[in-house]
Structure formats: C-alpha cells, structure tokens
Amino acid sequence: MSTSAKSPELTATRAPIPGVRISTVALVGIIAAVLIPVGAAAMVLSGSLEQKHIRVGISQAGPISKVVIDDANGSVKVVGDPTLIGVSGQADLNWQGSNQAPLALAQSAADGVLTLTKQCLNHDCGGADITISVPPGIAVQAVTTNGGIKVSNVSGGVHLETSNAGISVKDLGSGDAFLHTSNGGIDAAFTGAPKSIRAITSNGEVNIATDGKTWYDDDVDTSNGSRDIENNVDRKSTNEIYVRTSNGSINVK
User: What is the Cα–Cα distance from 210 to 94, expressed in whole angstroms?
Assistant: First the structure.
C-alpha cells in the first residue's frame, strides 16, 4: 500500500523537473539565437538607407544671356533651344534617409544672368541633377563634383568644371571653351571658331573636333597616351588649342 501511494508522488514530483530544465535551456538558446540576428539586422538597415528624391521646376523668363550653375555631387545638362528667350527645366534632388529634403535649389536672376545654386540644409545633404533648356546664344558656367556635364547647341562661351566624371560638349559656337575635370574624359565638338579651346583632365582621353576650317596653334601634351593631331595647325595663329591629360590619348581634328 505504501509503495503504491509513493509511486504517484514520485511521478508527480519528477515530471515538472525535466520540463523546467528543458524550458530554461531552450529559453537561453532562443535568447542567444535572437540577439545575434537582431544585431546583424541593425547593421544592414543602417548601411542601406532608402533613396529618395524630389523634382524642382526651373523657369526664368528672358532675356537671359548667361547661366551660372553651382552644383555638387550631381550631373548638369544644358541644351540650346532656338525657340526660347528664357530658361526652363528641372532639378532632381536626391538623398538618403529622412523624409525631409536636406537640400534645396536656389534660383536668382539679375542683369540677364540666371544663377542656380545647390544649397545644403545639413551635413551630407545628397545631390542635385540639373537639366535645363536655354537660348542658343547663351554663355554657360557650370561647376559640380562627382557628376558629368553635357552642353550642346550653345554659341556663347562655356566654362565647365567637374571631378570624377566626364565632360561632353557638342555643336558649340565661337565662344571660348574651358573644360576641366579629373578621372574623366573630355569630348568637345565645335561648329564655330573659338579663339581659345582649353581641355584639362587626368586619367582620361581628350577628343576635340574643330570646325575644320579654322587654323590653331596647338599646345597638347599627355603621358602614357598617344597624340593624333589632324586639325589645321599654324604656330603663328592667335587661336589656341591647349590640352593636358595623363593616362589618356589626345585626338584633335
């Protein structure tokens, strides 16, 4: 009788013990397993913020004779349009993280000069890709970084500077041309006859196509690259083509 009475008691007291021990071990294992992925997930999320952007319209009634663009971490594209006397286009502002845009585009016009300036509202504000259409007779001055510059069908002078990207211009008129970049190539084609064409880069090829009629005094030099000069060359000419690059070829025709 005593044996049968004790047997249920032993069963009742022993059954919860292994259950508790198993739950404790499992709980520790679950906590350890959860903590590691959570830390890893936090690292992934912090390194892959969502890309965001907004578009800002650009519109300025004419007459406009020059456009000045002060940009950074963005591309610039300017196209001459014979139907315009003013300027129209847009800027694509892009950034990561906050829903509030950390940058803006300031637009101002005075004495026929339109100035477009990227403004950072806080540190590391993102980039602005600017695309505009302009009157063909306009002059263009554009400075940016880490973005390419493209200009076409303008006859005024161009002064273009960027870094870590190329410069491409075509159908340019007789206005002087200054083109400067680093770690990027330069392509320039002219329908007019500028008095001065200057193209300077590093680690990039330079290709220049003149109007095929104007004589130039060429001053071109490169390291680790070939030189192919086929344009009309006259050492006594007051028209100048100046080209400097490294680790890239030079082609002038």
Answer: 37
How many CB atoms sit inside 10 A of residue 210's CB? 23
Domain residue ranges of the chain, discontinuous segments joined by +: 2-47, 52-252
Would you give the end-to-end CA distance of the chain in angstroms?
A: 116
Structure tokens at 110: 């005075």
pTM above 0.85, yes or no: no
Q: Is the pLDDT of residue 142 over 80?
A: yes
Ordered strands of the 167-172 beta sheet: 51-60, 87-96, 127-134, 76-80, 149-152, 167-172, 186-190, 206-209, 250-252, 227-229
What residues does 55 pair with on adjacent strands?
A: 92
pLDDT tens string 66-102: 999 999 999 999 999 999 999 999 999 999 988 889 9
pLDDT at 4 over 70: no
Please report, to the nearest 10 degrees, the dihedral formed by the alpha carbons of residues 56, 72, 139, 137 taken in order: -40
Single-letter amino acid, residue 141: Q
Is residue 50 over pLDDT 90?
Answer: no
